[in-house]
Amino acid sequence: MKKIDKFFGTILGNRKKEVSEVQIDREVVEEIIQIAEKSYPLEFSAILQGKIEDNILKIEGLIFLPGAASEDGAVMEIFMMPMLSDDMGSVHSHPGYSAMPSTADLQFFAKRGLFHIIIAQPYDLNSIRAYDSFGEPMDYTIV
């Protein structure tokens, strides 16, 4: 991680929430795959709900917010987020075969959450990629 990233992470409070491991509930992963398939050719987006226990980020659910979707992007009305939602990041689909974050994705990641998922075609376990708030790839375990 670059020094400037660490600096801004500290200012924004992201450094206080560093985790050593990410675990995603299997049902959440299955739901992400199903929704991505059904949404195609449009993107879908949701908030990842979870908690941090013993330095492990546990993703346990999805929060769906009002918004709009197209073949080029998805927008969530973040101001509609419930106050006590335990949001830990985001998930969205790409209608193509690349799960690399766009510039808009990276800007969103930097503003919101610790952990972000992008799923691309063919919408299966192998097409899921995860990133931290700086857009760096992250590992995760399905439990």
What do you see in this structure?
The protein has 143 residues and is α/β, with parallel strands linked by helices. The chain has one domain: Cytidine Deaminase, domain 2 (3-Layer(aba) Sandwich), CATH 3.40.140. Helices cover 23% and strands 32% of the residues. It contains 3 helices and 9 strands; from the N terminus they run H-E-H-E-E-E-E-E-H-E-E-E. The chain has a 7-stranded mixed sheet with strand order 8-7-6-2-3-1-9. Strands 4-5 form a two-stranded antiparallel sheet. The longest helix is centred in the N-terminal third of the chain and has 14 residues. The mean pLDDT is 84.
In summary, what is this structure?
It comes from Methanobacterium paludis (strain DSM 25820 / JCM 18151 / SWAN1). The chain is of the alpha/beta class and 143 residues long.
Strand percentage lies at 25-35%
- What is the H-and-E element order? HEHEEEEEHEEE
Global morphology? globular
Q: How much is the average pLDDT?
A: 84
The tally of structural domains comes to 1
Integer-rounded radius of gyration: 14 Å
> Which strands sit side by side, in order, in the main sheet?
8-7-6-2-3-1-9
Largest sheet properties: 7 strands, mixed
Number of strands: 9
- Unreliable segments (pLDDT under 50, ≥5 consecutive)? none
Number of helices: 3
CATH superfamily name? Cytidine Deaminase, domain 2
Quickly give the structural class: alpha/beta
Q: How far do the termini sit from each other?
A: 28 Å
What is the CATH architecture assignment?
3-Layer(aba) Sandwich
Q: What is the CATH top level name?
A: Alpha Beta
Q: Helix share of residues? A: 10-25%
Briefly note the CATH topology name: Cytidine Deaminase, domain 2
